[in-house]
Amino acid sequence: MRVLQLSLTELAGMPSRLFRALHATGTPCRLVTYREGMFTSDIVAPDRATLEAQIDAADVVHVHGMVTYDAVAPLLAGRAHVVHIHGDPDRQRGVAPPAPHVVSTPDLLDVFPAARFVPNLILPDELPLSAPLRPGEPLRIFKSPSLHDKHGALFAALLAPIQRRLGDRVRYVAPRALMPHAELTALRQSCHVSLDHLHGYYGLESLESLAQGLIAVNGADARCLDAVQAAVGERPPFAVARDPAEVGHLLLDLCQQALCDGARFAAQRARNVAFIAERYTPAALLAPWLAIYRELV
């Protein structure tokens, strides 16, 4: 079975991760993207003839995002394909494709009720563990790339009072815009806590933070956590806070725990790594996709 991953943008690396995970199983796969720089790429910005040839050669086309689907829909007529719906751009558009479609986070089921939820895939072997917090070392809090633009001001407002209270015992680490994923991973590896958005679900940043042994703070709601548990067999051990005040209190508690109860803090970080190792293996998270592909061909 030959699979074509097709995406106009990099979408936080999901097309690239699926491309590499499928290759690792021996499933023939190509990846067509129209932007490169942050993640592994394959075929970049092909002309129409090359794109049509790749679609012709595939048994199933995995289309990432409604914008991509709109651009290529005429080329998919009569061909096996599935549309993978991701995050804000698709949520704002809100028009379901006629093709079978899958959502990457449970909240998207409100907008696309006919969809199936399949959890995002990560590649733990590419995510080196964060170092333990040593006595006297400042706690390093990593700012998720999802906290950009207007969210950056929220991040600064949350962290300023903690900085004033704890001084040089805490430091904040923010990746530069469009940092390549390998560099971002190395930067996150130097940290102990990550802060993701508060929108009621979670980003890939939170999953990769768990895999690297960070405490992953986000605003995942109960329905989101229940859906992940139903899919993988266990609730993800996120540190959940659902509004700015809760985040401020939680971050302060984590800082004090890390500085005063290092064993408890280390145990939580180890639990996060174990959760990913046991529940988020590439094989387990590829299985739904392979089943979907087989249903289509």
Protein architecture, described:
The protein has 297 residues and is of the alpha/beta class. It folds into two domains: 3-121 and 282-296, Glycogen Phosphorylase B (Rossmann fold, 3-Layer(aba) Sandwich), CATH 3.40.50.2000; 125-279, Rossmann fold. The protein has helices at 14-24, 48-57, 66-72, 87-93, 150-166, 181-189, 204-211, 222-232, 244-260, 262-279, 282-296, and strands spanning 3-7, 29-33, 43-44, 60-64, 81-85, 101-103, 116-117, 139-143, 170-173, 193-195, 215-218, 239-240. A seven-stranded parallel beta sheet has the order 3-2-1-4-5-6-7, with helices on both faces. Helix 7 links the parallel strand 10 (193-195) and strand 11. Helix 9 packs across helix 10 (262-279). The longest helix is centred in the C-terminal third of the chain and has 18 residues, at 262-279. The mean pLDDT is 88.
